[in-house]
Every structure is written in structure tokens, then in C-alpha cells.
Specification:
The structure is a homodimer. The first copy, chain A, has 13 helices and 16 strands. In chain A, the strands form 3 sheets. Chain A has an 8-stranded mixed β-sheet with strand order 6-10-11-16-15-14-13-12, sandwiched between helices. The radius of gyration of chain A is 26 Å and the shape is elongated. The two termini of chain A are about 40 Å apart. Chains A and B meet through strand 1, helix 4, strand 6, strand 7 and strand 8 of A and strand 1, helix 4, strand 6, strand 7 and strand 8 of B. Chains A, B: It is found in: Cytoplasm. Chains A, B: GO terms for molecular function: asparagine-tRNA ligase activity; ATP binding; nucleic acid binding.
């Protein structure tokens, strides 16, 4: 029977001494005239299936020219060996070559290649162990996020990506259409958030979320910025700031726990080549209460360590840079930390204005190694306050009239946040460049294939 | 305890005679000085929760100004009434108004509004029963698709949306960047397919899929075209045409069956207001073998009914129009039908060229009411054949060199298809305009909010 390698490894007892057929790619091959060993991988499992070819059972000349990367189909009897590390092996009776290499230049061999070199071949790099691990984790995490929201009773909602107004009220957007190009007959950009539209759907469905690609014409070439990335944005009616922070924490803790259980082999490998404490650190986060600090207190705490920063000008109203965010979580709290109540001048127009007249009910969740992982807020539900803020910021009121109108009919207030999927994946894998957690990354001046 | 209406309806016995708190929106209100009835909906369930207010238990003046659309929180004791249609009711002891209407102009009242009028208020229309049903089904179907692929061992893969080459080799694309705008320093468009990139990932992971927004600068204003829609694209290495057709059929049958079971109330409502045979038709499809016909035979069959068509010129090489596609499935096969082996001139460059020298190993799955729901193919794995076809069509070989290179290393061939999510939703709901199954639809000259 034709079966995936993952299926065999999950239930080796079911396949013990049975004849199986497996299709996959050669990741290693060695041996001599009497016996050969092929490590086969079909992508279903991080681990390879060991295939043994003995000259008694099969004409070894069939295998003598095989190379790493080639696609084959093998049949043979599987033996479960639970006592050994490799779980079992197949004694091959039949081998068919399904896809040869044209020449000896297949770039993925069993030697280390730098991440920079691999970034030049995004169409091949997932055939290394490192990228197999990352991309399998990416897929798992992706699914666990959908599962979390589904189980929590959320409605998945597709926010439009082509938009004629800009959620953040500023920012670098890609322009897709304008009066000249006349497809839509108005300036149309790639949306930077689905939040405004999600707020509309939270009224009526209460709990909604979007999980979709997002675009920023971000010219800074940093480790954590990409022009195209995926974002998770839940929006919940009736929720205030504290409730949405609780949801954010719960989401992270649940999905991280789930992938730690499901993707044991990938984590074992990542710890071998990278951060030895990866899982320990993640589990610690999953099992703790996340600390909370006001922006005002955060500034005070950071001010005591001015000598550590490039940007030393820290005052109420100063924008926290990545170095400050990381210092807060890495050095001061030594764990992820939530900062709340930012000055309204630093945040978008739609956030709930606190009674102090200075701050808004916003939060950022900061994590070690990255800085901001999540940004969210309670939304301003008061029509007049929101209208005033839109005018104050010089935004066109008529562009946001529909959004203002959401305040007119049965709006109990709502809260939500944005979680960058790739930043989460960086946090979970310990990989420190966003280009290495996206299959085909897009950054400024850089669009390969 | 605070609870969702869906939770109560799933386990009414757990909440019977218990005090509960529910937050939601008023969908109906009636009564007199002694007793009032509020129908409450919180989006978790299609059905409303009946709330009874008696002057003995609560000061009815609290409720006298309430209106449809307003947000409230109620507490009271729930009584399960399994014998009655409404499943149970709450005797309200406490009521808090959480979001009032500013005036009496809330557009969603208990009277019929035309779909055209509702299209002008996409930020409110989901608060009608019809759009609540459609959007809840959309969310369910979305999740079931991810679940299907996960269970089948697929790796979710994010194809890039910003691309510098165009998968279909032609077609109307949105341009995001060019040499002048200089963000990427080359012509960059919104991708029309993730397939080419998915093929790269199928090598190594074997089974991959993408499910993401797709863009077409499509100027024809039809019932089934949108400028932005979601597409499901699986790609499987080692699969040939027949195997990928089997996967397509299985996917449709599984996810449709799943939502029929999960979304009973939504279907009951859709059948009440629309197609009475909706579920019967869908179940029949799920339980049958899907018929298959070659393009050549399809042309012959259609030629016998020329008088039925606007486009009567039917010959080997003619592009099937929607009228032909629908006639095939509605009149000739009276069920969904798969057409295979199209002339290569009608299809994209990457399809496997059959031995007859004229056709490619492509398939379209046609369904009643819509026409093409799925299009897919076995891919051309032979480097020379593919190279030749790219040149023949006048496409720039250097743009596709990376794609050609996929043929060089361990490529056993792959097959895949594209399924328009919204077309599937139209098929499943019986809704006949794509604008009514997308929260905020984008079409030519039409981008509201």
C-alpha cells in the first residue's frame, strides 16, 4: 500500500512486516556493492525513512547512479524498530526513479550553506533540513491559529485588501490604481490592515478574525520588516482593553503549546542547530502570567538604563524603538511583557481615548529577540470623539464616514489586535531574519522570482 | 455565567434552569406593558435566543425604547424547551443597554430589502438574516477547507502575491510597481496564481496548498467575476491528471458534506428564501461519481444543441463560454461534470502536452448555475517541451528560468488546480451573484469603503 512517511512513523506497529510503497526524495545515499542505504523524505515528516537495498533482494545497479535530490518510488517490507532512533526501515524490493537530476549541480547537498546564499534560491532552499523544519512549523502554526479561533467561536471574515482608505491614517502603501489608471476610478491601495472592516463585522458577529496577506512599502531593510507578510487580526465586540489582552495571550500560549507537541522533530532539530533553550523558553512563556506595565512606567524604567541605548532621549511622548522594546522584555522583565496606555500622539486615530486626555487604551506585546509582536487597542466608540480626532489629524472625514457610521447603530465598543504571523514564527523558531520564515520573501529592491 | 447563544443551543440541557448572561443585538422586539419579547442574536448562532421580560421580574420601562439593532446584555434564568421550535427562552432579570442607535435610521429592519440596495451598505448588510447565513457559511467552509488539507497531510504554503512574472502568461493584472516607482525596481504585479511557486514547494513537500486572495483587473462586470477573490490551489508532486481530478472531487464532496451537517440552520433559511432543493442537489453531488468527458466529445455533444446558444460556432479549438459550460452540466449531464484534454491553444503554457500533439492534460470542473468552478492540470515536467512552449508563446524565457530549473532536479511531475472560493460558496449557497458572498466586494469601477 502507498503510504506517507509520517503515517508510518505515527503508527509503526500498523506497518510492521507489511509491504509498503513510498514516494519521496533522496536526502542521503551511501553503501557498497552488497548493501546500500537511502534516506528518503517525502515532506510529510521531518524525519527520513531509512531504505535498505541488499544485493540479495534487488539489482543494486538500479541505485548506483542515484543522487541527493532525486525523486524515487520504493516498495518493500517495513520493519518497526522502536528500540532504535530511526523508528524502522524498509527492505527495498523494488525501486523506480521518478525524477532525475539533469546534472550534478543540485545546490542542496549535505554540507552547510549560508542563509544568505540560500536566500538567492528560495525555490530550492526548502529542500534543506533547516527550511523543511521552518516551513513545516509555519504550516502547523498557520493551522493551529485557525483552529484556535474556530474553537473560540470566531467567524472568519475576509477583509478586502484593495482599499480606498488607509487604516493607519498614514504609512507607506502600495498604490494599485488612481484616476489615470481608471480601473476603480479612485486612488486604491493595498490595505495595511483589515481592522476597520473587521470592526463592521464584529457588530453582529461579535467575534471575528482575519488572517491574510498585508502589504507595506517599507523601505527600511531590517531583520523584521517585509513588504508582504501575513497578519492575524481578531476584533471582538463588547471587549475592553483587558479582555483583548487576555485573548492575545491565550492565543499565543495555545498555539505555541500545540506546535511544541505536534512538531517535536522540527524543534529538536532547531535546538540542535540554534537556540538550545528554545522550547524551555517557549514553555516558560506559555505557563506564566504575562507582566503588564504602563507606557509611562516603561519610560521611567528605561530611563534608568540610558547608557544602554543609541536613542537616549526618553520622555513621555517618545516613540519606543526596537532597542527599547527588546530591553524591556529581555533585560527588565526577562519575558514577554505588555505595555499599555500609550500617548495618543503615538497611536492611530481609532483608539479609545482615556479619561486622562493624554493616553489611549492601546497595548503592545513585546517579546525577547523581536520587540513588538502584537499591537492592539480598544476602539473609540464615541462618535464625536472619533470625528474630532479624524479632523485633528487632517484626515478626510468623508473617507471615513462609513467607519464613523458604525458608531451610530448598536455599537457596544470593540477591541482587537494585529499579530504579524512571520514575527510570531520568528519567535517560535528562534530564526532571526524574517526573510527566512517566508517561502518567497519580498523586501525593498528585492523580488526574486 | 456569560455564554454564547450557540453554546446554549448546542447543550440546552446544561443550561436548563441556570442563570446565564448573554450579550448580543436585538433582532426583534414586541410586547405590551406586562410582557415583552426580545429576539437576541450574538452572531454565534444563526438562530435567535428568545428573551422574555415580565413586569413581575423587571422594570419594563428599561426596555420600552429599545430598537432593532441595539446592543444589550441580559441576565436571567434559561428554560430549555426541547419540545418547542425555539429550543428555550430566558426569563430576563437584568438588562443593560450597551450600544444604542443614534436615530431611527438603522437600515436593517424586519422588511425585505433588495440585494442591490444592500450592496450599497456592505458594512451593515451582514446584520440581515440572509447575509448572516451567507457569511457564517463562508466562515465554516473556509475552515473545512483548511481542515481537509491538514487531514490529508498537506503543507500550507504562502505563495507570494507580489510577483514579477505572470503565471497565466497573459491576463489583466494590477501593476504595483515599475522602474519609475522603484520600490522593487522592476515591474511588479499582483499575482493571478500561486501555482508556479507552489510547484517549487511540491518538490520536497509533495502535497502543498495555498489559500489566499487573488487579483484580476477584470473589466467584465458579470455575476461571477470580482477583482479580488480567494483561491484555493493545491499542488501535488507525483500526481497525474486522474489523481488530481480525484482530489478535486474529494475536496468538494468532503467540505460540502461537512457544512451541510454543521450549518443546518443556515441551509434551512436559504432553502426557505431561495432554492428549495439546495441540500438535495448538493448531497446528490456528494454521493455520486462525477462524470468525465473529453473536450472533443463535449464539443460534439454541444454541437447537437447549437440553437440553444448565442455563440454557435463550435469546433475543435473553440473556447467554451459560460453558456456552453452551464448547458453541459445543467442539461446534458444534469450534474457537475469534468471536461479533460483541452486544445493546448486554449490553455496556459505550463500544462502537460499530450502525445496527440494537440491537447494538454488539463481539466475543468463545471457545475450547474456557474460553469467553471475548478480548473487544473498535470504540469509539463519535460524541460525541453516547456522551454519550447514558452518561446512559442513569445514569453521571456529569462523570466521563467527559475521555473524551468525546477525541472532539473528530482522532479517527478506534479498536478494541481485552482478553485475559486467565492464560486464554491455560490454553488453551496445557491446565491447567484459573487458580490453577495464577499463581505466587501471589489469589481470594476466599484470600491465602496
Amino acid at each position: 500500500m502507498s503510504v506517507s512517511i509520517n503515517e508510518i512513523f505515527i503508527h509503526p506497529e500498523l506497518y510492521d512486516q507489511k509491504k509498503i510503497t513510498v514516494q519521496g526524495w533522496i536526502t542521503n545515499i551511501r553503501g557498497n556493492l552488497k548493501i546500500m542505504f537511502i534516506e528518503l523524505n517525502d515532506g510529510s515528516s521531518f524525519k527520513n525513512l531509512q531504505c535498505v537495498l541488499k544485493s540479495d533482494n534487488i539489482d543494486l545497479s538500479k541505485a548506483e547512479n542515484l543522487a541527493i535530490g532525486e525523486a524515487i518510488e520504493i516498495s518493500g517490507v517495513f520493519s518497526s524498530t522502536p528500540e532504535r532512533q530511526q523508528n524502522g526501515e524498509v527492505l527495498v524490493e523494488n525501486l523506480e526513479v521518478k525524477g532525475r537530476n539533469y546534472n550534478n549541480n543540485f545546490p542542496i547537498q549535505n554540507q552547510e550553506i549560508s542563509l544568505e546564499v540560500l536566500r538567492q534560491i528560495p525555490h530550492f532552499r526548502h529542500r534543506t533540513r533547516l527550511f523543511r523544519a521552518i516551513m513545516k512549523l509555519r504550516s502547523s502554526l498557520f493551522y493551529e491559529i485557525h483552529k484556535f479561533f474556530r474553537r473560540q467561536g470566531f467567524v472568519n471574515f475576509s477583509a478586502p485588501i484593495l482599499t480606498s482608505n488607509d487604516g493607519e491614517g498614514a504609512g507607506e502603501t502600495f498604490i494599485v490604481d488612481d484616476e489615470q489608471k481608471d480601473f476603480f476610478n479612485k486612488k486604491t491601495t493595498l490595505g495595511v490592515t483589515g481592522q476597520l472592516h473587521a470592526e463592521a463585522y464584529a457588530l453582529g458577529f461579535k467575534k471575528v478574525y482575519t488572517f491574510a496577506p498585508t502589504f507595506r512599502a517599507e523601505r527600511s531593510n531590517t531583520r523584521k520588516h517585509a513588504a508582504e507578510f501575513w497578519m492575524i487580526e481578531p476584533e471582538v465586540a463588547f471587549f475592553d482593553l483587558e479582555e483583548i489582552i487576555e485573548l492575545a495571550t491565550k492565543l499565543l500560549q495555545k498555539v505555541i503549546k500545540a506546535v511544541i507537541i505536534r512538531n517535536k522533530d522540527e524543534f529538536t532539530f532547531l535546538e540542535k542547530v540554534g537556540d538550545k533553550n528554545l522550547r524551555r523558553r517557549l514553555i516558560q512563556f506559555c505557563d506564566s502570567q504575562v507582566a503588564q506595565v504602563t507606557y509611562e512606567d516603561a519610560i521611567k524604567l528605561l530611563s534608568e538604563h540610558k547608557d544602554q541605548f543609541e536613542e537616549k532621549n526618553l520622555f513621555f511622548g517618545a516613540d519606543l524603538k526596537t532597542e527599547h522594546e527588546r530591553f524591556l522584555s529581555e533585560q527588565i522583565f526577562r519575558a514577554p511583557v505588555v505595555v499599555i496606555n500609550y500617548p495618543k500622539s503615538l497611536k492611530a486615530f481609532y483608539m479609545h481615548q482615556n479619561d486622562d486626555g493624554q493616553t489611549v487604551a492601546a497595548f503592545d506585546l513585546l517579546v525577547p529577540g523581536i520587540g513588538e509582536l502584537i499591537g492592539g487597542s480598544q476602539r473609540e466608540v464615541r462618535y464625536e470623539k472619533l470625528h474630532e480626532r479624524i479632523s485633528e489629524l487632517g484626515m478626510k472625514v468623508e473617507d471615513f464616514q462609513w467607519y464613523l457610521d458604525l458608531r451610530k447603530f448598536g455599537n457596544p465598543g470593540s477591541s482587537g489586535f494585529g499579530l504579524g504571523f512571520e514575527r510570531l514564527l520568528m519567535f517560535v523558531t528562534g530564526i532571526d531574519n524574517i526573510r527566512d520564515v517566508i517561502p518567497f520573501p519580498r523586501t525593498n529592491k528585492n523580488i526574486l522570482m
